[in-house]
Amino acid sequence: MSAFITDLVQSIFTPGPTPTLLVATNVTFACLQAVLLLLLIATFSIHFVILSLLSAGLWWSINWFVSELRAAQAAEDEKKRAFDEAKHTDDTDTDAETVIGTGNIHFGSKEVEILEENGELKDRGSTKGSKSETSTEDEWERVSENEKDK
Questions:
Q1: Which of 9, 29, 44, 139 sits between 20 and 30 A of 36, alpha carbons compared?
Q2: Residues 42, 146: Cα–Cα separation, whole Å
Q3: 0.70 cut: is pTM over it?
């Protein structure tokens, strides 16, 4: 039993659904269903039927998701294995490189659009005063001084 608890704690830090975590999840949901059944028998309340259906739906969805993850992982492993086999069978002693996808590739327009200037450009870095006179802080100070005058 202590080995199961140790594996369960270690499975928390392992990515993906581990067998120990799945066993713990299924046992927990089975116990929850048993408790809900006992409460239904004791109270004859419809609430426990609804809770049992919700619990069963969650239990089923968790197991479905794990099976989909396993199927996706198996497909990925098969694809990787096939790629590795193809790579090993295609190895030759030549140093030639394979060129892939040399079709008609267009990286942009061949026409050049000429932009016209729409106004005059102003030199913001004028040499008439110090740099601090053209800063935003000085402009805010001028605005606040104008507000005080009102």
A1: 9
A2: 80
A3: no
